[in-house]
Design goal:
Blueprint lengths: L11 H16 L4 H22 L10 H14 L9 E5 L6 E5 L7 H22 L10 E7 L7 E4 L2 E5 H6 L5 H14 L4 H4 L8 H16 L22 H14 L4 H11 L4 H8 L3 H16 L2
Parallel strand pairs: 2-3, 3-5
Antiparallel strand pairs: 1-2, 4-5
Helix pairs in contact: 2-3, 4-6, 6-8, 8-9
Bound molecules: zinc ion.
Length: 307
């Protein structure tokens, strides 16, 4: 069956009706399958015609079926208006650090942001800046935070001075990990290891496990030590490795800080930011390599756990 769709390019309302009637008559459709196919073709062209027509203000075709389809398509094709941006400014009491929070997509979280999150951010961002100083570096004094709906399974990430927060994940963690997660991201803002390229003509690469380990060390062992979220237990002891990143590395860093050098984090951060990170930083600070320290760390945990 040759269902020739009508040409709607020039004058759609005029040309469409005769073609529709002619098709119905001449093709003598007798089965519902054939009719469905014709209607699908008509609907397809109706949508095209509707989009082409609208800007010129021409009236819609008068055929009732077409009109119905065309109206539906008109509704569906209407541009979705973007929500009006809702961005709120916050600052530390001394006015030194400023934060803007985009809650456009999260009006339900505004109260939590205002009463719970931002007091913590305003309190802890200056502390993190003070923990991680280095010569020739000034931490950002403006930070942006934004709730987003397109982050998949990633709770949060930081790019430059902007922290992106996964809205569904935050909604599920308001009384759980939400604030600690933001603390971790604020550490990334302050770390700014991209500075190494400007500070050093031949910068070394700082491993990701060091970068993430420092962020989680500040979160779990300084911001919220009581939560004990980065413990080595009998359950995870055999599988953890010092450079697993995040919580495990945070635990390793904490052990080295307590056992060897209280300034280790400062030294690692300075080297990373200046593009001079290497295993020598650990050697100079503790007299041992990371592998030797890792062996000692495992032994200390085995003893503590009675393993
Ligand atoms: Zn991170």
């Amino acid at each position: 069956m040759n269902l020739q769709a009508p040409d709607l390019t020039a004058e759609p309302s005029f040309r469409f009706r005769p073609s529709w009637k002619a098709a119905k008559l001449s093709l003598a459709l007798t089965t519902s399958v054939a009719l469905a196919a014709l209607l699908a073709a008509v609907q397809s062209r109706a949508a095209t015609a509707d989009v082409a027509q609208s800007p010129s203000g021409q009236s819609l075709p008068t055929h009732s079926l077409f009109r119905k389809i065309a109206l539906v398509e008109t509704k569906a094709a209407a541009p979705v208006e973007a929500p009006k941006p809702v961005i709120t400014d916050f600052a530390t009491p001394d006015g030194k650090f400023k934060f803007s929070v985009d809650t456009t997509l999260a009006p339900d979280l505004f109260k939590w942001v205002d009463k719970e999150l931002m007091p913590v951010v305003c309190d802890w961002y200056p502390r993190i800046v003070a923990m991680l100083p280095s010569d020739g570096f000034t931490a950002a004094d403006k930070v942006q935070l934004e709730f987003r709906n397109d982050m998949g399974g990633i709770p949060a990430y930081t790019g430059g001075t902007k922290v992106s927060m996964n809205l569904p994940w935050f909604r599920s963690q308001l009384q759980g990990e939400a604030k600690g997660c933001v603390i971790h991201e604020l550490v990334h803002v302050v770390q700014h290891y991209g500075h190494a390229a400007a500070a050093n003509t031949r910068p070394t690469q700082t491993p990701g496990w060091v970068c993430e380990g420092i962020a989680d060390y500040i979160r779990w062992f300084i911001y919220e030590p009581k939560s004990k979220g980065a413990e080595i237990t009998k359950g995870n002891f055999s599988s953890v490795h010092f450079n697993d990143s995040y919580r495990t590395t945070a635990n390793f860093l904490n052990w080295v800080v307590e056992a060897h050098d209280k300034d280790l984090i400062l030294k690692l951060n300075t080297a990373a930011r200046q593009g001079s990170y290497s295993d020598k930083v650990w050697q100079d600070a503790t007299g041992k390599s990371t592998e030797q320290l890792a062996t000692d760390w495992k032994a200390a945990n085995a003893k503590r756990l009675g393993l």
